[in-house]
Structures are given as structure tokens and as C-alpha cells.
Design goal:
- With about 325 residues, the chain is an alpha+beta fold.
- It has two domains: about 130 residues, no CATH class; about 140 residues, no CATH class.
- About 30% of the residues lie in helices and about 25% in strands.
- The chain has six helices and twelve strands.
- Strands 3-4-5-6 form a four-stranded mixed sheet, covered by helices on one side.
- Helix 2 runs antiparallel to helix 3 and helix 4 packs antiparallel against helix 5.
- It comes from Candidatus Cellulosilyticum pullistercoris.
- InterPro entries: GerMN.
């Protein structure tokens, strides 16, 4: 009897060890699954382990919904410090064939390019932590997400995104830009702006951002609306393609001349860089935008000296 009692005790001790081991393995498994939040001040993803309440979820749909809700509300634990961006404008989500489909509302179009990238990266990395999810498809309302040039983005996988630093090259190099603003005569005048860039051969976005900020001189006027947004800007083989957001019918434009000055302040500022010879302009990813009878965004724009002041030409 005594021997049987000892065996029974040893058996229960062994069970306790096994269960303790299983619990340790479960905790280890959960701690390896993370939420990724986008820090808007550093342009990086910061992570934290999924909390204990997540382990109680059994349904895959509920797990996806939980992660999206936490990210949508920028709801982090007190241990993770980051500067949150705007709330994610997500209307619905679903799962099919190991891919999550997310539908954004039209409010997504109002986000900056960096906010859009950070938001998508946060969702893709967090959802791909789930062992039943490989990637994410994005829609705006019922329209599949496309690039500025109209190319379908398709399913986004973690391997498509630089997780650690979305902007790996901070702007540290001093550089001088030639930016054009309007004078009282309605002509363009060059103003030099001292900035810091990460790559002197890729300053397109910085030029546009300086135009949005406006002139330093009190004698010059801005040529683009202050609420204009830069969605994309890049140069290939001497042709700079930009995608901007603004209201073509804005009261900022008092006449067609104002619209012409906007276009050619952009074009002449960009073509001041030796690597840029021509400019293609998209408005919210589209070129068939009604602006003026003389300006067709389906055209490719070249530098025009006709809009530059004579004093500037002879200086």
C-alpha cells in the first residue's frame, strides 16, 4: 500500500510538471506574437506582445477583429510609448485563403503618404503574426488599392515592407533648393531654400513640401494651396512623376493664371535639379482632371521660361 501511495504521488507530480511545461510553452508562443504600432515621429514600427486576453479567443475571425480593433484605436499597453497617428479609417474586414481583406473608407485618401505607408505596414505585420494569415489585401470602399500610377497593389506580405525603419535614411545632408514663387506682377521668382535631405539625387518631395510651406520673402506669394498634399514623387530616366492632392476648384485660384503659376512653379522648381528634365502630374492618382483649358494633366510638362520674371532671367 505504501509503495502504491508513493507511485500515486509521483504520478501526480509528473502530471504537474507536464502541465507546467505546457503552460510555459503556451506563454512562450503568445509572447512571440506581437502587435506593431506606427510611430509617426520616428517613422518606425514599435512592437509589443499580444496581451493575455488574446489567448482566450478561439475563433479566427475574432482574433483578426481583435488585432484590427487594437490597431485602429492605437490602443497600446502602458509599456509601449509611441506617437500615434490618426485613427485607421477601416470599415470592414474578412478572411479568405489565408489573406485578410481590409476595406478603408474614403477618409483614407485624406492621409499623408507616410501615414498610409505606416498604417498598412502596421496592419500587415500584426496580422501576419497569426499562423493562419500570410498577407493583406487593401481596398478603398470597393475599389482595390492602386499606386499613384494606377498599378494594382495586390496582396501585401511582410517581406514587401521594411519593418524596422520605414524611412531608413534620415535627412542629415545640408542642401540648397531653388523654389519658385509668384511676385506682384504674376511672374515666378526663384527663392533659395536651405534644407536637409537624405539623398541629394532624390529631393522631389522636399521641393514640393517647400512649395507648400510658402516663400520666406514677404514680397513673394505662394503658388500652391497650403493644404495640398504630396502622395508620391519620384524620377526615372529624367522624368519626374508626382502625385498630389488638392481641390482644382479651390478659391485659392482666382483665375486661370493662378492655376498656370501653380503648375509651372512646380515644374520649374523640379527641373532646377539637373537630373529632372520633364514632369508628369497626377492628381489623386489621375491625369484626366479638369483644371484649365490650356493645361492638360495628361501631357508631360517641360521647363518654361515664359513664366519667370525678366529680372530673374537677367540676374
Amino acid at each position: 500500500m505504501k509503495r502504491r501511495g508513493i507511485c500515486t504521488i509521483l504520478f501526480f507530480m509528473l502530471l504537474l510538471i507536464v502541465f507546467a511545461g505546457c503552460e510555459t510553452m503556451d506563454n512562450k508562443l503568445i509572447s512571440n506574437k506581437k502587435l506593431y504600432f506606427f510611430d509617426t515621429t520616428r517613422n518606425i514600427l514599435v512592437s509589443e506582445a499580444l496581451p493575455e486576453e488574446f489567448t482566450k479567443l478561439q475563433d479566427n475571425q475574432e482574433k483578426v477583429k481583435y488585432i484590427i480593433t487594437r490597431l485602429k484605436d492605437n490602443k497600446s499597453s502602458v509599456t509601449t510609448t509611441f506617437q500615434a497617428g490618426p485613427e485607421m479609417p477601416i470599415e470592414s474586414q474578412g478572411i479568405k485563403d489565408r489573406v485578410v481583406t481590409i476595406h478603408f473608407s474614403e477618409a483614407y485618401n485624406d492621409l499623408t503618404a507616410v501615414e498610409k505607408i505606416g498604417m498598412r505596414a502596421s496592419l500587415v505585420y500584426s496580422l501576419a503574426e497569426l499562423d493562419f494569415i500570410d498577407g493583406v489585401n487593401f481596398y478603398i470602399e470597393e475599389t482595390p488599392l492602386t499606386t499613384a500610377t494606377g498599378r494594382l497593389v495586390g496582396t501585401v506580405y511582410p517581406s514587401n515592407i521594411n519593418k524596422d525603419i520605414l524611412d531608413p535614411n534620415p535627412a542629415t545632408i545640408p542642401y540648397t533648393l531653388s523654389v519658385y514663387f509668384a511676385n506682384e506682377e504674376g511672374k515666378l521668382v526663384k527663392e533659395e531654400h536651405s534644407v536637409r535631405v537624405s539623398n541629394p539625387n532624390a529631393v522631389e518631395k522636399t521641393i514640393l513640401e517647400e512649395l507648400i510651406k510658402g516663400p520666406n520673402s514677404d514680397t513673394l506669394s505662394r503658388t500652391v494651396p497650403s493644404d495640398m498634399k504630396v502622395n508620391d514623387a519620384r524620377t526615372t530616366n529624367g522624368v519626374c512623376q508626382i502625385d498630389i492632392s488638392f481641390d482644382p476648384k479651390s478659391k485659392f485660384f482666382e483665375n486661370d493664371r493662378d492655376k498656370e503659376l501653380m503648375v509651372y512653379s512646380i515644374v520649374n522648381s523640379l527641373t532646377s535639379e539637373p537630373q529632372i528634365k520633364k514632369v508628369v502630374i497626377f492628381v489623386d492618382g489621375k491625369s484626366d482632371v479638369e483644371f484649365t483649358s490650356d493645361i492638360d494633366f495628361t501631357d508631360t510638362f517641360e521647363r518654361s521660361e515664359n513664366y519667370i520674371s525678366e529680372e530673374e532671367m537677367h540676374s
